[in-house]
Design goal:
With 727 residues, the chain is mainly beta. The protein is built from 7 helices and 46 strands.
């Protein structure tokens, strides 16, 4: 998949290049993945935190309560990744400096908390080790960052540089209750060439420049009460935004749901992908469970309430007056009721810890607020580390069900930056082994034999050398699904290639919350035959119709029939395909609807201005066995894709596209030969601080057995090519 990059404006002044304020509403620059995991170590590795969080003994300013180093940040206005060893304190020419890739700072609450004013950071850097930096901070409206490029030449080794942060909030809303972060120019994803991956910071002062926020008198407040009801009049969970005209959102009260995206408890979270008709420039949201009460600074606000793509977005104006309580009763209205048609949604990729059953209620409150019926909570491993985001149980014992919403344990394991991340869903136990960690097929077979489904994550963004893992495990018959929809991208290349080789393969989708987007941003719909349960959902996903979506709803019929996924016909028969796509107008408008046969568009319906509904009709002659699917694209970035439908002509089960088999198989063989000759590079690993001690040693131990598997896979592709050429 091609990387997508949006240009970023900058201005030059006195030799410094300071890029303008960047926010999460800026188009995403990179088609790249976010990384997962912390891991609770089973051996003596250095870290035990999902973000590689370590506290540094550095006190540059009395206003700084804590300095920490972390390895990733996708909610900071850009995608920040530190590719180097953990940060450390060093003495440089008598100065006590901190050297590292990405540093986080917690401003002491007594110095500044919940402000909305201009703040200046005065930094002293060692120019011999610093060619610039990014400053990411808690902005009043959106997470934001500024980029400062210093250039190569310098006359003074230790240079002081001032950076102005407009509308700094400093309300502990960055990772682990921090307020701003400073990272090297090279600590971004994708990893750039020619800039440093570390910086050396030898001094830091915080200067408040105006008298707003906590510097002035406390704002006068009034009461606010919110009562959220579903379409049946019952209290329900929901996502909420409350915004002044300038986008500022008051900090939620204790009655908001508590979120634990990593290890710190939070009440607010930045919204990276707001629906089309989100009415405010503000992006911080909170979650409620029916009733919510708070004391709010007086003024006029816009209230937003949302509960996933099947509900309409509700907005209203709220006036908060001193001495009064403003009451809002919101009755949510459905745009569509998919469960009424026996369609239920799942997010196939969420990371939330459930170490005990006590976490169930709060976790389900959040996922049900996004109306996810099956929330797959993935326990994670990496080389040498057994588990992070722990789940207290697997199989049906790990299911937590309340009505039509559920939590289910799964695993993102095995996984590595060198041969891809994998996911096991519906697993009866956590299946892991440090021995032979790079031999994914062992785990895949155990997952399959136990009734689970195994597939590759992050295929949508072509991350972590997924081409190597897919080429190997597809040939060995281990892959049930590929995650083609994530982070706003739908990438069908791998899905189509392997379907064209005759493999049967399901599309999957997942948000990878909390690393990227809100849970449920991308989801899988499966059509059940009877009553809802997690087990029934997985059975339907494997055997019934399903589709992945970031908003659009797809449906189709074949000769009027609406349930089958395989049709056995005689040569010369015609299948009359009718397909419809719809989208909630609060989310997007539909731009295009395609019928895809053997990876090629044979019929497309498109509108220039976008529409809520599009319909396609096409007669498909059955001249040979094949696969086909329906896909749709929204005007503003949403997408959907059905699972493939197979047509078996005259009993021939080979649905491959024979004319491309040789070339497609050759591509997989090429990838496998490169993989066989390769060796992992610790610099490419997003979790280097955890994996480096075991990475190369484990690779060397597994290499002989891995090479045998690679050669077996190559033989499979060669056999496919021979079979196709003999037809």
């Amino acid at each position: 998949m091609e990387s997508k990059t949006a240009g970023q404006g900058c201005e030059q002044s006195r030799g410094l290049i300071v890029e303008g304020l960047m926010r999460i509403t800026t188009p995403i620059r990179n088609a790249v993945l976010l990384a997962a995991a912390l891991l609770a170590p089973t051996n003596a590795l250095a870290h035990a935190h999902p973000l590689g969080n370590i506290t540094l003994d550095w006190k540059p300013d009395p206003a700084i309560a804590r300095v920490a180093a972390m390895n990733i940040d996708f909610q900071g206005g850009d995608f920040f990744v530190t590719w180097r060893k953990p940060a450390r304190v060093e003495i440089i020419e008598g100065r006590r400096c901190v050297v590292g890739g990405y540093l986080f700072f917690d401003v002491a609450d007594q110095a500044a908390f919940d402000i909305d004013e201009t703040v200046t950071l005065e930094l002293e850097v060692d120019r011999s080790q610093t060619d610039g930096f990014n400053v990411s901070y808690d902005h009043a409206v959106n997470p934001a960052f500024k980029r400062v490029s210093l250039g190569r030449a310098f006359s003074t080794r230790f240079e002081k540089i001032s950076v102005t942060l407009e509308r700094a909030r400093f309300a502990n809303r960055k990772y682990e209750h921090t307020d701003f972060a400073i990272g090297a120019l090279g600590a971004v994803q994708p990893q750039p060439l020619g800039v440093n991956g570390e910086l050396a910071l030898c001094g830091l002062r915080i200067i408040r420049q105006s008298a707003g926020g906590t510097a002035g008198a406390p704002p006068s407040k009034g009461g606010f009460q919110l009562d959220v009801r579903d379409e049946h009049g019952r209290a329900t969970t929901a996502r909420v935004g409350l915004y002044r005209d300038d986008g500022l959102s008051p900090l939620p009260s204790d009655q908001a749901l508590t979120l634990v995206p990593f290890e710190a408890q939070l009440k607010q979270w930045p919204l990276l992908n707001p629906p089309l008709k989100w009415p405010s420039v503000g992006r911080y949201v909170f979650y409620v469970d029916g009733i919510y009460r708070a004391e709010v600074p007086s003024g006029d606000y816009t209230l937003v309430v949302y509960k996933g793509p099947e509900y309409r977005l509700t907005t209203e104006k709220v006036r908060i007056q001193v001495g009064h309580t403003a009451r809002s009763r919101v009755g949510l209205k459905r745009w569509i009721n998919m469960p009424a048609q026996n369609w239920y949604s799942a997010d196939g990729h969420i990371h939330l810890a459930r170490p005990t059953r006590a976490a169930n209620a709060a976790t389900l409150a959040y996922t049900s607020a996004e109306d996810i019926h099956v929330a797959n909570l993935l326990q994670v491993s990496s080389v040498g580390q057994r588990a992070s985001y722990p789940q207290y149980a697997f199989g049906r014992g790990g299911d937590f069900v309340d009505g039509h919403h559920s939590l289910v344990s799964g695993q993102e394991s095995p996984r590595s930056s060198h041969r891809g991340h994998t996911i096991g869903l519906n697993v009866p136990e956590y299946i892991w082994s440090d021995d032979g960690y790079f031999l994914y097929d062992r785990i895949a077979k155990r997952i399959g034999d136990s009734g689970g489904v195994f597939g590759y994550a992050h295929v949508a963004i072509d991350a972590f050398n997924v081409r190597y893992g897919l080429a190997l495990d597809m040939a060995l018959g281990n892959v049930d699904f590929v995650e083609i929809l994530q982070m706003g991208f739908m990438n069908t290349a791998y899905l189509y290639d392997y379907l064209n080789l005759g493999y049967r393969l399901l599309p999957s989708a997942g948000s990878d919350y909390p690393f990227i987007r809100t849970a449920g941003s991308e989801r899988i719909y499966a059509k059940l035959n009877g009553a809802f349960s997690p087990a029934a959902w997985f059975e339907a996903y494997r055997k019934n119709r399903s589709f992945v979506s970031s908003g659009p709803i797809l449906e189709f019929s074949v000769n009027g029939e609406t349930s089958k996924t395989e049709y056995a016909v005689a040569r010369g028969a015609t299948l009359q395909i009718s397909a419809t796509v719809r989208v909630n107008p609060d989310i997007d408008q539909i731009r295009r609807l395609d019928l895809v046969v053997h990876g090629e568009v044979v019929k497309s319906v498109e509108v220039m201005e976008g529409a809520e509904t599009l319909t396609l009709n096409h007669p498909l002659p059955a001249t040979r066995s094949l696969w086909w699917a329906v896909r749709a694209y929204g005007e503003h970035g949403t997408a959907a894709h059905t699972a493939p439908v197979y047509v078996i002509v005259d009993g021939d089960p080979r649905t491959w596209k024979t004319e491309v088999v040789a070339d497609t198989a050759a591509e997989s063989i090429r990838a496998l030969r490169i993989f066989k000759a390769s060796r992992p590079n610790p610099d490419e690993d997003w979790e280097r601080m955890d994996t480096e001690p075991a990475l190369l040693n484990r690779w060397d131990l597994d290499k002989e057995r891995l090479d045998r598997s690679i050669e077996a896979a190559i033989a499979k592709y060669e056999s496919l090519t021979s079979a196709a050429e003999s037809r």
